[in-house]
Amino acid sequence: MRLFDQAKYRFIENRRRAYLMSGTVMLVGIAGMIFNVFSIGSWQNYGVDFTGGSLIQVQFHQPATAGQLRAALGGSQAPPITRFGEENEFTIRAPLGNSTVETIRASFEGQLATAFGSDAFTIVRTETVGPKIGEELQRNAFLAILFSFVLTLLYIAMRFELRFGLAAVIATAHDILITLGFLALFRVEIALPTVAAILTIVGYSLNDTIVVFDRVRENLNAKGGRRQDPVDLLNRSINETLPRTVLTSGTTLAVLGALLAVGGAVIRDFTVVLMLGVAIGTYSSIFVASPALLEIQKRFGDGTARRERKKRRAQVTT
User: Fold this and answer.
1) How confident is residue 157, by pLDDT bands cut at 50, 70 and 90?
2) Same domain, 141 and 286
3) What is the pLDDT, as a whole number, of residue 280?
4) Which of 28, 187, 220, 230 could anchor a disulfide with 225, C-beta 3.0 to 4.6 Å?
C-alpha cells in the first residue's frame, strides 16, 4: 500500500502560518542564546571539547560498565564517560573550573575507590585540554557549516537553477538556527558528537529538499509546466514526493528512537539532536524550501526571460 497516494494537500497556501510558526520558534531560540550569554557567559553550553578541561583514562582489572562509573561519579551529574581502547578502559572528561587536574584526579580516584575498591582500577593517564584547542574546534565547526552552504549553493545552481540553490540554503539555515535554539534553551552540552549531529542534519535536510526540487524541475520541464500556476505546480510536486518523504523520515526516526532507548547516556544528546533535525528537515523541505522558491521566483522571475534571450542570440548567431 502506497501511503498518501493521490494526495492533494494545499501546502503552499499555508505558508504564512508556517512562516509565523518558524519565526516564533527561532525568536524563542535566539532569546535563549542571549539569556545564556548573561547567565553562563556563552551563547551555548560548550563541553570540555570546546572549553578545555581534564581527560582521565581509567583501566579496570575486572568487568565494568560506563553506567557503573557514572553512578559512582554522581549519576546524572557525572562528567562525560566513554569507553576507550580495551573492554574495561574508559575516559572521563571534566571541566577544570577553579581546580587543578591533580585535584580532579584525586577526587575521581577517591570516588572510584569507594565504589569499586582501590585495587580494582588503575589511572592510565591524565591530560589537560587547553581552551585554545576548543576555540579552534569552534572555528572549524563554523567553517564546516559555512562551506557546506557554499558548496550546496554551487551544486544545486549547476544541477538545477540558482533560485533552487538559494531556497535550499534558506531552508538549511532555518533548520540549523532552530536546532541551535533548542540546544541553547535546554542547555544541551555542545561536544564533538553534537557538531557531527548538526552536520548530519545539514546533509539530511538538503537531501530531502533536493528530492522535492527534483520533482519540481521534472514538472516544470513537462509539457505546459512553465505555463502552470507556480502554487499549483509546487503543491503537486510536494504531494507527489510526500510518500517518500514520510516513509524516509518515519523509518529514520524509528531507528533513532531505538538508539535513544538502548544507546545510553553517552549518545543521548547526539541522538536527540538528530531526531530533532530529522523532524525539522522534513518540515522545512515542505513548508520552508518550496515557499522560499516561490518567493524568489516572484521577485526575480523563473529564468524564462533569460532563456528566451539566449535562444534569440543563438538564432541570430546561426
Assistant:
1) confident
2) yes
3) 94
4) 220
DSSP structure string for 1-33: --TTTT----TGGGHHHHHHHHHHHHHHHHHHH
Does residue 85 carry a pLDDT above 70? no
Structural domain of residue 290, as residue ranges? 12-38+133-310
Q: What pTM value is reported for the model?
A: 0.78
Enter the DSSP assignment of 302: -
Whether residue 117 sits in one domain with residue 153 = no
The count of domains in the chain is: 2
Report which DSSP code applies to 75. G
Kindly report the length of the chain.
Answer: 318
Residue 28, Cβ density class (10 Å: 0-12 exposed, 13-18 middle, ≥19 buried): middle
Whose cell is 575498591? That residue is: 117
Is residue 54 helix, strand or coil? strand
Of the candidates 30, 246, 277, 21, the one whose C-alpha atom is nearest the C-alpha of residue 172 is: 277
Separation of alpha carbons 221 and 233, rounded Å: 11
SS3 state of residue 228: coil
**What is the per-residue DSSP string for 83-105?**
E-SSTTEEEEEE--TTS-HHHHH
d(CA 14, CA 66): 48
